[in-house]
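Entry 14: structure prediction run for Amidohydrolase 3 domain-containing protein. Input pasted below.
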Amino acid sequence: MRTMKVMAAALAATLVLSSPAAAYASPKPELDVIIHGGKVFDGSGAPGRFADVGIKDGRIHRVGDLRRAGARSRYDAAGQYVTPGFIDVHAHTETGPPLAGAKSALTQGVTTETLGPDGSGPFEIDKELRRLDKDEKGINVAPYVGFNSVWEATMGELDTRPTAAQSAQMRARIENGMRQGAWGVSGGLGYTPASYARTNEVIDVVRGARPWRAFFTDHMRDETNLVVESTKEDIAIGEAAGLMPEITHMKVAGPRNWGKSATMLRLLGEARASGTHAGGDVYPYTAAATGLAFYVPAWAQDGGTAAMLARFADPALRPRIDAEVTAFVIDDVGTPDKVSTPELGNKTIAQFMAEYGNVTIGEAVMRILAAHNGNVLAVMHIGSEDDLARFITDPFVAFSSDGGVTESAQTHPRHYGSYPRVLGRYVRERGLLTWEEAIRKMTGLPATMVGMVDRGYLAEGMAADVTVFDPKTIADRATFDNPKQYSAGVRWVFVNGKLALANGEPTRASAGQALRRAASMPTRPQNAGKDLAVGAAGVVRPADGGGAILLAALSQRAGDRVASGTVVVVGPMGVLRSERLGRLQTTGGWFSVSGIGRLADGSERAFTLTVDERDPLARPGQRRATVQVDGTRLIYGGLV
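Run finished. Output tokens:
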């Protein structure tokens, strides 16, 4: 406490000498964009309020009454809802030309998609991010490091046990992926060859991410008859590995299993009560989509596609595969008319069975796969509306699409309609959620789950990812028969402060960024409904020299939209004093705040401050601070 008082006195003296309030007149701000007259939802779950949003240099510069402020562009949002851009934590995003326009995402209000779901993410994240940096991007992208990719690269496609050296190699690949900027570890224990990994083997590998305080987002091992057991397994992996267990695209498959959603959510709640931050995500459909080979038993896929097709042709094995595939399909959907193939004229398994001469389910599946080298997309109508409603309304389950950017016309409608479907069908029409709660589960909640500090909220200093939509007309149009139909009701989307969508069409502003997770960006719960108070004072000393003097004394009362207090930084930019603060975010030994500060010349700059006692790159017992002031070099180092 004495050190903080000494530092505060030193800083006060510095301010008197270098930037007295009378030394300059406050200039009228020149904003890039003002969105005025709309109802603003900040992403915290607080009710909407009528306010204007001002954007400058890619950041939220002001939220309030901006009728007298000047701007290069003004957008009349009367009758519209203004929200943070939606963040999709489970997306099968197509990079290349589709990502450049990103129309399927932008017309849903999505501004950020994660990459590499279901364990498929690359483990050489530095190379992936460099590649993404070069791509034209209509939205932001944020990669995961994939457990399945790490397992397959090390173990191949065979069902074998890893040696101690192989486990160490896989663990190092996970840790390196996090160090290089991955936003979490994705898993797909329902898919071969990762499904060959035993629970203790998964734990031994993914614990490489423990120091990074990340999450393990998993397509669980079994979403049908063993859905409860698989929920327990994911929780156990997270607890033992020191990661947040996050069950992705939550569902309960098969009529005989419907209703088990209540047990799944209870188990996650019990984990949170015992101290493990746990949650999930869900998309708003009762139908899934994946490769048709998903129905082939793991033992028959051992060794890869060629080995699987060879087993199909083995007369000694074919009857067993037939029986197991048939049983799985019945368990999963009930009847074969509920599995269709979008790439094959949307024909159902039942139709193929008749076409092949009234064969069994398993026989039809094997013939379809054999004719297409084992690679056929299937849409499976597996779920119930009651289970979906439970997932949708749980406060710890975020929304996702399991879709992502695409231009395909032969796919699941979730690629084109997920977020407007939630808002139009489940909020406006059915009233399952309030607007503010649904928006929170699309913005602030997913941002904190993956560790983002400057996205997910509409507050001063945050990245200017903004979605403006009409609450009366927002709706999905995509259907299973005609999935490539863009959603209605999203009026404008801004990505990093640039207009990315207008009148239903991308502007091709190429404003998206390849996002990197820093060491001081932990996965964490939201802080809604809590009184918060933090402080820090000292000198930030980067390893490469330079540094800054820092003073921060901050609080935020439950129900307040933004923080109160002061941030002062004395560094290469001169003296920066906070003028308007954004939202204070905290978790054990860590806090972050954004805001707008004023320099001695009267100019205003956005800033983000993070102070962290558990930074994995720090020495034992060392606190680290990160100070980012727009237009200046990032300052990151020990706080002494």
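Notes: The mean pLDDT is 95. Will compare against the previous run tomorrow.
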